Amino acid sequence: MKKHILLLSLTCLLFQGIGVSCFEEDWDDDYTNPQENKDKERLPENKDKDEEPSKEKEEPKVIHLFTDEEMKYANTAADVDYMSADEKRMILLCNLARLDGDRFAQEYLTPYLKGETNKNIQSLYEDLKNTRDLPMFAPLKELQQAAAYHMQEMIESQKFEHNSPNGDSPATRIKKFVQNVRATSENIGARSSSTKDLALDFTIQLLVDNGVESLGHRKVILGQGDIKYDKIGVALGKGPVSGYNYVCVQDFVVLAKR
């Protein structure tokens, strides 16, 4: 069977020493849509404004734009026991962006960016406005194992790249863990620093996709490509990897119909 391999931004783009991301996708040419039947991610500086002294400082009231029912619906990894809290949260955040991109932008993207803008950020806002009611990513244990395996490979080899040290491509590696795979995709990211919310850091880094002309990371997460992925595995951890302190692997698959 003829295979198509699309390498988007496989030449890892270095984002002025701050972060780096890569995307790779692989699929069979008889794939059918199952739904039919390195970026400068500038971290915002936390600068406290001068405030008059007070006896008690009130915590700002957080108004959530997603209902409890929507949060539960999007939190597809809530009950799994093989992911860290950050990994579960990253799946939740990706799913919220797919559920209602406009509200995701208001609640998460705008406060995070704190006024920073560029052409990729502007295009992301437009894409999020047009993203709504997509199917939720479902976690898959074997896919999680594939993502965690590659993250550990990169940490041990000190190399930030899609291919394994033995030469295996992402598709080959993923298929060693997951059976009956029709299509695969992989996002990897690394960063030198983090806020207190590593899952949000990487989610926004991959969605903004600064320096990546194809916007491959964003397209997979927001379901904009020809292939609509529905299974996900996420691995987040500490490096160092190629001089970066944090690393992320997102693996996606579409399973073949039996």
List the helices and strands and how they pair.
Blueprint: E1 3-15, E2 19-28, H1 68-74, H2 85-99, H3 101-113, H4 119-129, E3 138-139, H5 141-157, H6 170-177, E4 181-191, H7 198-208, H8 216-221, E5 231-241, E6 244-255
Helix pairs in contact: 2-3, 2-7, 3-4, 5-6
**Low-pLDDT segments, ≥5 res:** 1-18, 29-55
**Structural class by sheet pairing and helices:** alpha+beta
Could you report the average pLDDT, rounded to the nearest whole number?
84
Which word captures the global form?
globular
Total helix count?
8
Strand content: 15-25%
- Please report the total strand number as a whole number: 6
Description:
With 258 residues, the protein is of the alpha+beta class. The chain contains eight helices and six strands; from the N terminus they run E-E-H-H-H-H-E-H-H-E-H-H-E-E. The chain has a six-stranded mixed β-sheet with strand order 1-2-4-6-5-3, sandwiched between helices. A hairpin with a 3-residue loop joins strand 1 and strand 2. Helix 2 crosses helix 3. The longest helix has 17 residues. The two termini are 17 Å apart.
What's a quick, concise take on this entry?
The chain has helices spanning 68-74, 85-99, 101-113, 119-129, 141-157, 170-177, 198-208, 216-221, and strands at 3-15, 19-28, 138-139, 181-191, 231-241, 244-255. Helices cover 34% and strands 23% of the residues.
